[in-house]
Amino acid sequence: MKNGLFFFLFAFLAWGACKNDKSSGVQEIRNGGSNSDLVRNPASADENIDTSQMARITYEEPVFDFGEAKEGDIVIHKFKFTNTGKVPLTILKARSSCGCTIPEYPEEPVPPGGSSEITAKFNTNGKHDLQKKLIYVTANTYPGETSVLLKGVVKPKE
Fold this sequence. Notes:
CATH topology of the largest domain: Immunoglobulin-like
CATH class of the largest domain: Mainly Beta
Oligomer: single chain
Shape: flat
């Protein structure tokens, strides 16, 4: 009896939660939806959107191998990029795959043809052997999220 009542209550709550989802994707954006929806997904598979008129981020070196570092070192690398698109490029956020890596990015828009950099600071404390740290960059670009990779080998303290 308890299991049947629990199942009924769970099904009712799930049904009610689904009814409150008013998101309708691209159509909602056209009908006054938020711009943040467009930034998260500037081009949709549902429609043909001219991506040639968007910002594009092109990295000079999307993968950087720092070689070897000693545990406790701070590895710093600047990933240089160019806006190869036709409108100003605005980075909304940059996050890393690990709390040991801190990305810093420009807050001001990068004009078409302009260049800037994303600085990655990797704290090797407590890390050993091969390390790969991804930095995810969310911007008003096509595609909306890109990434760069910092990799190398960390030798333990002696």
